[in-house]
Amino acid sequence: MPQTNSATGHTGDPAGFAALTDDLGLLYGGDYNPEQWDRDTWREDVRLMVEAGVNLVTVGVFSWARYEPRPGVRDFGWLDEVLDLLHVAGVAVDLATPTASPPPWLGTLHPDTLPVDADGVRLVAGSRNQFSPASRVYREHALAITRDLVDRYAGHPAVRMWHVGNELGQVCYGEESAAEFRRWLRDRYGTVEALNEAWATAVWSQHYASFDEILPPRRTPYHVNPTQSLDFRRYTSDQLLALYREQRELIRAVDTERPVTTNLMGFFPLADYWSWAQDLDVVADDAYPDPGDPRSPADAALTADLVRSLGGGRPWMLMEAAVGAVSWRDHNLPKTPARSRREALQAVAHGADGVCYFQWRASRAGAERFHSAMLPHAGPDTRVHAGVVRVGGDLARLRDVVGQRVPARVVVLFDWESWWAAEEQARPTERLRTLDVLRAWYRVLWDAGVAVDLAHPDDLAVTGAAGYDVLLVPQSYLLSPEAADAVAAAAARGASVVVGCFTGVADQDAHVRTGRFPALLSDLLGVSGEEWAALPDDGVPLTGRLAGPGGSTATDLADAGDGPRAHVLGELLRADGAEVLASYAVGHLAGAPAVTRHRVPGLDGGAADTADPTAGWAWYLGTVLPEPLLRRVLTDACERAGVTGALPGLTDLPDVEAVRRGDHLFLLNHSGAAAHVPVPGEHADVLSGSIFTDVVDVPAGDVVVLTERNA
Question: Tell me: the pLDDT tens digits for 543-558?
């Protein structure tokens, strides 16, 4: 059944995307900008697309000035020709509303449509994204061009999907935004008295007598009120979502069948994508992992798991990626075709039913002239384009993967509001970064081939954690009582729960909870704290005994080489029933617990019994652990819950990733050496046709996709 967003009464229909992939298979293509080229080039493009296996292109993302060269004038004739050419060739179109980049005349005639930064400077046209999401004039013009586009092309057979805007992420601090922010605050709080309470305006004499006195958190002499800043982030995300919804509703009024989406940007800091997901018929993402970062394969997998989880586990779409180098980093390392292929197949392994790039043909001019493309400046007789053709063939061979899901027994809690609040100014340390902690925990699971879903803590409170045997909370600075109860309930029914430091610190107004911390989870964890302490640059030595992987003998931390150290932040804790696994050896926190483990009573509420199979376990990490110790804790948690990776022994194969999607096993070798991977039984590689028995050979940088052969 379609999913309904209760906030809008609007129904997202993922069936439209499923129908598209059932028809076309895995989607493959990229952004196409024909307005940059002549008609002869269009014909060459279409021919080469077909040869490369392209079946979907995104058209019109930056075409507004071409559609409407002067106010009210329409020029769609060129697009008619392009769509007809693509349709005859069998290439489907994801038609974009061109609203991400208004024509220069809009800012010239209506300066108030241009955004204002936190310093009060109004930005100008000449780039892209030059609009304020709060501007009513901008939105009226955006709806007008969208309406004419949809009326003209909703019935065109080439158009198979709609794409609203592009990478919605604008923020504005101008007067119109200030008025909209005040309206949003009235809706949220009702009275200025309630706002004063939520914002704690008794601090620093910030009391407001009227909503009319309130401004966005522009540049100030010193720190901004953290709750004001948090609310402005919430408002900004909601304003961008309202912009998307306006255009989506207009499309839906004319076209009720084709899926509608927009391209998200993974862990993008300016929009809370949990609140967006129900409005997307398919969750689509733009991903540009850095080839220069050795951690990027694991980080790309984490982003893919996030995007899949936003859609409730449904197949998603990689809307943009780079075939080679990008052009917007300070130093742009290229990708080999093998790496580009591996990243495309990694996305499919993690649930993508479409892989697209920016862009089809490399631009000769403009800001993205050195951004890689499926068809480079040097033409089709190139290594890059040969790699593009190869990926097209791979995706065609993987058609049976369409619609299959990635099963996971581990769930990781993450939400944007907690991330925002945890990184406001004036906290114990600015070195504790939510995403750094999340990525470190995830890499341990990635190395072991353990599949992961992500969830918003409050969604977990509604749906429960049924189906998950391990629940991880790397850092949730904001935590509601309902979410905390859901975490405790998961442990009570037998799940392993691991909680990281600086969790449950504040309520939803970003007010620090009083009493010993983490106030909402102390009973579950059997530990409580009284002080947060930034740690010295070289860390603090730890002492204690932690079990090794596979239940191996516990290691005395003091005997482990130079000894492991806690980093960044420590907490002054006491054990209230928990077993202390590691303590601080010296310094301000000397003798205090750093890592604990607690046996949790079962659902009957009786005393925790180590022989009771229904009771769970709860670990607390009161500091940032080095990777070997973090690995021990998370491995212990998984093993006690009976959770294993996709393949045994995978941790002995560094940089080899194993992912099960439906009845396909993806093995991706991110290393520079051949890997010999034990896979019991006889399997066929869908990509090469090779047959393997018990051991699968994966060349350096290569991918195999296995299906079990019939006995």
Answer: 998 765 545 555 677 6
